[in-house]
Amino acid sequence: MENITIKIAKVSSLILRSSFGPVALLWSVYEGQPKIFRALLSTPSVSAKDQLVKLFPDSEAATCSEIDVIADNIKTFFRGADIQFSLERVRMDLCSKFQQEVLRAEHRIPRGAVSTYQRIARYLGKQRGARAVGKALATNPFPIIIPCHRAIRTDLTIGGYQGGIKMKRTLLETEGIDFYETGHVKTKNFFY
């Protein structure tokens, strides 16, 4: 997988409150349009605000109507609504070609369904690419907008998540996915 290094001239940020802690949207104007280049989720050990200060200390708090729509949709999503986010306001061009393919495949998984890293890899024609898919999702710059919480391991365990396992499980449960007492996903609704 290729590495993409970016330099954003002016970084703007918007912090949202959620039941999972702060969420930070980082955006800039690209080709005349406001575009999100990163979304940060709070983890059990580090808040999105602290991550923002560490990664982008010179960012300025700012918003605009286009970014406000995405922020409002994220808040509504966290309250349990079925929101399908558009990719027109995210900087997919900053991701490698393979990661773009993985993220677009993940974006198509509907609410109430899950897929596995292996199924996604096969869908993309990469028979032995489950680990690469997992890595591409682990570094998803747009969590929630691209719902990477809908990918699980082949053994039906939940796998990792940027916002932590508890957040991933809660998001899946909100979408109607059940779990066995063992913590394994209990569903027959697989995508791909």
Condensed summary:
The protein has 192 residues and is an alpha/beta fold. 31% of the residues lie in helices and 17% in strands. The strands form three sheets. The protein has a four-stranded mixed sheet, with helices on both faces. A two-stranded parallel sheet has the order 5-6. It has a two-stranded antiparallel ribbon with strand order 7-8.
Description:
The chain folds into 2 domains: 12-78; 95-186, Arc Repressor Mutant, subunit A, CATH 1.10.10. The protein has helices at residues 48-55, 65-78, 97-107, 117-123, 130-138, 165-174; strands spanning 12-16, 23-30, 33-41, 60-61, 115-116, 151-152, 178-179, 185-186. It is of the alpha/beta class. The protein is built from 6 helices and 8 strands; from the N terminus they run E-E-E-H-E-H-H-E-H-H-E-H-E-E. A hairpin with a 2-residue loop joins strand 2 and strand 3 (33-41). The chain is globular. It starts with 11 loop residues before the first strand and ends in a 6-residue tail after the last strand.
